[in-house]
Design a protein that fits this description.
Layout lengths: L13 E6 L2 E7 L5 E3 L17 H11 L8 H8 L5 H8 L8 E5 L6 H7 L4 H9 L24 E4 L2 E5 L6 H11 L6 E4 L2 E5 L11 H8 L5 H7 L3 H19 L7
C-alpha cells in the first residue's frame, strides 16, 4: 500500500468538498469565501438554507470527522500520528466515509477518486487497532486511507473486506435482529458471526448512500423528530420506509433477547 506524506505543522487554507471527481464547494478558511460549483451535489446538511454560510460549512466539516468519543479512537489518532488536529486528520484521510462518496480535497492534495476507492480501508493492521485498542509498532499503520475518522457511534468498529465489524459483546442484538428481519420480510443488511465479531455487510455503494438523521434535521431546519418533518413536508416517498423501520425497531427492542453467541 502507498504512504501519504503530510507536513506536520501545515495549516489548510482551502477545503474543497468533492463528490467523487466533481468539485462541489470550495471554502477558503482564511477569507471565509465560498464558491459553490455543483449545488445539486451538496450534502443535505448544506442544502437547507438559501445561502451556504461559512459557519454551516465549517460545522459540516467538523462533524464529518467527529469520532473522538468512540472507544479506542484515541489509539487510532496515535497510530496515524495526527493527534486531535483537524487539519492533520483531513490531510491524512481526506475526510472519506464508507457511507457516502464525499471527500475533502485540501489545498495541496492531488488525489483522484479512483485512488481513494482503491486504498480505502485496505489497512487491516489499522482496523485491528480500532477494534482492540492495541498498537503494534512493527506493523504498517500509516498507508492507505481510512474511514475511521468519519465512522459514527460509541463502540469499537472497523471496515474490513466490505463488512462493518463490531465486537460481539457490543452488538448483542445485531444478529438476532437480522434473523427477525429476514423472517418477517424486512430488507436488512446481511449479518454474520466470525469468532469474536459480528460483521454486517455494507449496503452503501457508489450509487447508495446513508444520510444521518442529524443531516436531515439540518436539511428540514428542525429540532423535532424526522418523522414529523416528513409528515409536515408531505414526503410520502420516504414516509412508508420510515414507518417500516420504526415497526422493525420496535419488534427487535420489544423482544427481550437473551441470545448468547
Amino acid at each position: 500500500m502507498e504512504n501519504k506524506a503530510t507536513e506536520p505543522n501545515k495549516k489548510i487554507s482551502k477545503y474543497t468538498i468533492m463528490y467523487e471527481d466533481k468539485e462541489v464547494l470550495t471554502f477558503n478558511r482564511k477569507t471565509e469565501e465560498i464558491e459553490v460549483h455543483e449545488a445539486k451535489y451538496l450534502p443535505f446538511w448544506l442544502r437547507g438554507s438559501e445561502a451556504v454560510k461559512p459557519t454551516a460549512v465549517l460545522e459540516w466539516l467538523i462533524y464529518r470527522i467527529d469520532s473522538s468519543h468512540r472507544t479506542y479512537m484515541n489509539m487510532v489518532y496515535v497510530a496515524r500520528k495526527v493527534g486531535r488536529d483537524r487539519d492533520k486528520i483531513f490531510a491524512d484521510s481526506s475526510g472519506i466515509s464508507f457511507t457516502d462518496n464525499f471527500w475533502i480535497k485540501t489545498s495541496d492534495v492531488n488525489w483522484a477518486w479512483e485512488d481513494i476507492v482503491r486504498l480505502r480501508d485496505e489497512n487491516k493492521e489499522l482496523s485491528a487497532v480500532a477494534l482492540t485498542g492495541k498498537i503494534d509498532t512493527s506493523k504498517d499503520l500509516l498507508s492507505g486511507f481510512t474511514t475511521l475518522f468519519t465512522t459514527k457511534g460509541y463502540f469499537p468498529k472497523a471496515i474490513i473486506g466490505g463488512y462493518l465489524y463490531k465486537l460481539k459483546e457490543d452488538a448483542l442484538l445485531e444478529y438476532p435482529a437480522f434473523l427477525i428481519g429476514k423472517h418477517i420480510g424486512v430488507n436488512v443488511a446481511e449479518c454474520k458471526l466470525e469468532k469474536d465479531y459480528v460483521k454486517i455487510r455494507l449496503f452503501t455503494s457508489e450509487t447508495v448512500s446513508l444520510v444521518h438523521s442529524s443531516e436531515l434535521k439540518q436539511y428540514f431546519d428542525i429540532k423535532d423528530e424526522i418523522y414529523n418533518a416528513v409528515l409536515k413536508f408531505d414526503r410520502n416517498d420516504i414516509k412508508e420506509q420510515l414507518q417500516r423501520m420504526y415497526i422493525f425497531n420496535y419488534i427487535t427492542l420489544a423482544i427481550q433477547c437473551t441470545t448468547r453467541f
